[in-house]
Each structure stands twice: as C-alpha cells, then as structure tokens.
Amino acid sequence: MIDPVDREVRGRILARRSDENATMSAMFAPRRVGAVLLTAALLVGLTSCRDSANFVMADGTYVLLAQPGDEGDEAQVQGTVTVIGSCLGIDDAIAIWPAETTIVDTDPFTIQVPDVGEVSVGDQVDGAGGGATMDDLPDGVVVPDDCDATSVVTFRAG
Fold it and tell me: Residue 87 CB: number of other CB atoms within 10 A?
C-alpha cells in the first residue's frame, strides 16, 4: 500500500512535469506553425508562378518555358546564349526553352535543357525550334515587360 504522503508528492511531481511540458509546447508551437505556414506559402507561390506565367527566375533573370508537350517548329536554331533585358535568349531573340528546363546556377547563369544538357550564357547552342514576333507568341507564353526584345525563338534539342 502507498503512503498518502507519497501519493501527494508523486501527484505534485507529475503535475509539475505536465506544466513544464505544456509550457515548452506553448513556447515552440508558434514557431512550428510559422515554419509550416511559411513553407506552404513558398511552395504555393513557386508552383503558381511556374504554372501561370510559364517561367522560372533566378537572380533577376527570367527563363521562359514552353507549354508541356509543345515541341515547336522543326527549323534549325543556333546561336549564342545571351541575356536580353531580363530574359535568357539566343543571340538577339528571347528564347522559349522546353517546359522541363531548370536553372542550375547563376554565376555564370546556367540552365539544364532536356536532351541537351547544361547551357550557360556565352555558350553556343544548336537545336530545333522556330521564331516568332512579340505579337505572335506561342500559346501560354508571357514575356515580362523588362525583357527588351522584338522577337522570340523556341529552342529544343534537334
């Protein structure tokens, strides 16, 4: 049989531990909630940018992306990768890269192009695609205002 004094002491110890746990949980709960909300907001923001505007961006440079499954024309496209205003281009035209293109680095600005590999500003590229004017952009392509060019070119492995 447990002594009534021991029961009382045990009860106080358990109550104190419970209070300490509640205090610690209350102390860290706002940080956890904040971190979860921030992560969720960033994921939603990044997803919505890529889906609605059809571009990826890093260090102030836009990489315009074609719609998934859009193969473009069959013309030969070759030239030097450049930055035109704030957009990655080929020679003097803004380039529209395959949908799965990703940014690899920003110094020098480098992208990973499906079936081509890594391509950096200053590199020569040779592939397939076609050209268009700013008034005749491929479906779903939005050119940011600070990309200063009068023409666009689609590019993919040739």
Answer: 24
Q: State which amino acid sits at residue 46.
A: L
Classify 98 as helix, strand or coil.
coil
Instruction: Please tell me the distance from the alpha carbon of residue 138 to that of residue 152, in angstroms, as a whole number.
Output: 9
Around Cβ 118, how many Cβ atoms within 10 Å?
11
- The secondary structure of the chain in percent helix, strand, coil, rounded to multiples of 5, reads 30, 35, 30
> What is the torsion angle, in degrees rounded to the nearest 10, for the CA atoms of residue 143, residue 126, residue 82 and residue 57?
50
β partners of residue 128: 76, 156
Higher pLDDT, 26 or 141: 141
Distances 114 to 21, 49, 99, 128, 139 between C-alpha atoms, Å: 52, 21, 9, 13, 20
Structure tokens at 34: 């904040």
pLDDT digits (tens, 9 = 90+) for 110-138: 999 999 999 999 999 999 999 988 888 88
Sign of the CA dihedral with 122 first, then 69, 48, and 132 last:
positive
Torsions phi, psi for 130 (to 5 deg): 180, 170
